[in-house]
Amino acid sequence: MKHILAHTAFLIAMALATQASAQCFADYKAKQDNPLRLQYGLIELPASACGSIGAATRYAAPVIARSGWTLLQIESFLTQAQFDARSANAGAIHLRR
Fold first, then answer.
1. Has UniProt tagged this entry with the keyword Signal (predicted)?
2. I need a labelling partner for 66 at 20 to 30 A (CA). Which of 33, 42, 43, 79 fits?
3. What range does the domain containing 79 cover?
């Protein structure tokens, strides 16, 4: 019985570690003024910013601003598979880190 509990605990720990190390992405809309330009892009997020629009916005806004863009909104969170599917539609500058 102890062996089964120890094995179960190990499997749960491994599953949690895998989830924590999984990559998280978000897609966003941004703008530049004079002249007005709009951009759709993807950004890789740290685990601490994944799953919360507020946390993702606080992380993404300064990253996107370094390239002269103003974040308008985080659209959604993406898994690796969703990122792969959408990256073809995101344009030349599709991933910010």
1. yes
2. 79
3. 23-96
